[in-house]
Design brief:
One of its GO terms (biological process) is multicellular organismal-level iron ion homeostasis. With 283 residues, the protein is α/β, with parallel strands linked by helices. The chain is 30% helix and 23% strand. β9, α7 and β10 form a beta-alpha-beta unit. The chain binds adenosine-5'-triphosphate.
């Protein structure tokens, strides 16, 4: 029987990033939101222990791009338990990225379903499966730094946040999430006014992860998270993913099996023709 904690908690001290965020709050008028978020976070919430667990369940997914005659994915099935690390590997062009895009809600499957199934500690389903809410899925694309748009770290991470007055509660929520995301990925030592393009390869990936973590996803999808990094940055990012899997569910597509093998809880090979088979990484 596995005990799972149903609340989401940050383990790093809030003081780590208090200063840069305080100045950020003052400069763009989020001071009140920031102060309130601190008050909110200091109250200890009771942690609820539960023996239930959830699984991401992909059931018989087929996908044929509109206007084409051929299925890219053919009856894909798999189940991934919450707070675990799933790895999909396989030849180029077999359909791995296509599957990730469906999970992130960027395309709709031609048939089949993607849901969350809750189980009791006896391993039996506890309720009807629910469709995976795409708002709780984060995706980090291959080479995410190529999509950075801002000229400083803070603007990059807060891109798209509400700037108008009002919605104080939302601002408090986002600010508190930002603190947690920075702590999780170890960005707290980086000046917020630094140009993201001047960060090292590994720190660019940390920033891309933090951008997704601010949205508090339950499922984080990563397409080739180690691609293009030197050996040290690859080791750093792998270590970070190991840390993150204690907090959320990770599904990774990668060819870098050696570095990731020790993190893997479940893995699958995507065969040409879009067929997914459970298989250990061949390392
Ligand atoms: N919209 C589309 N229309 C037609 N074919 C497509 C479309 N999108 C992808 N494909 C094709 O589907 C196949 C699977 O592509 P996908 O990018 O999912 O493979 P992959 O396994 O992720 O490859 P890689 O490891 O190189 O990233 C490829 O042959 C690709 O050309």
């Amino acid at each position: 029987m596995t005990m799972s904690v149903s609340t989401f908690s940050s383990r790093a001290p809030i003081s780590d990033i208090t200063e840069p965020l305080a100045s950020f709050s003052a400069t763009i008028g989020w001071k009140q939101a920031y102060a309130n978020s601190l008050r909110f976070r200091r109250k200890k919430k009771p942690r609820v222990l539960s023996c239930d667990y959830s699984c991401l369940e992909v059931r018989d997914i087929c996908y044929r791009p509109p206007g084409t005659e051929l299925n890219i994915l053919n009856g894909v099935n798999f189940s991934l338990r919450e707070k675990s690390f799933g790895l999909i590997f396989g030849k180029s062009g077999s359909g791995k990225t296509t599957l990730l895009q469906l999970l992130a809600g960027l395309n709709k499957p031609t048939s089949g379903s993607i849901c969350i199934q809750r189980y009791g500690d006896d391993g039996q389903p506890k309720a009807d499966p629910e469709l995976l809410p795409t708002g709780k899925v984060g995706i980090v694309f291959q080479f995410p730094e190529r999509f950075f748009v801002a000229d400083n770290v803070l603007d990059e991470i807060t891109f798209g946040w509400p700037r108008q007055k009002g919605s104080l509660q939302l601002k408090e929520h986002l600010t508190s999430n930002l603190q947690r995301a920075f702590n999780w990925v170890g960005l707290d030592s980086i000046p917020l006014d630094k140009d993201p393009q001047l960060l090292s390869g590994g720190y660019k990936r940390r920033l891309a992860l933090a951008i997704q973590l601010v949205q508090t996803p339950d499922l984080l999808i990563l397409d080739e998270p180690l691609a293009g990094l030197d050996w040290k940055a690859r080791a750093d990012v792998a270590k970070l993913l190991k840390h993150l899997k204690k907090e959320l569910t990770l599904l990774v597509v990668s060819h870098d099996l050696r570095e990731l093998a020790s993190l893997v809880d479940q893995s699958w090979r995507m065969e040409t023709g879009g067929i997914l088979l459970a298989e250990r990484p061949p390392v």
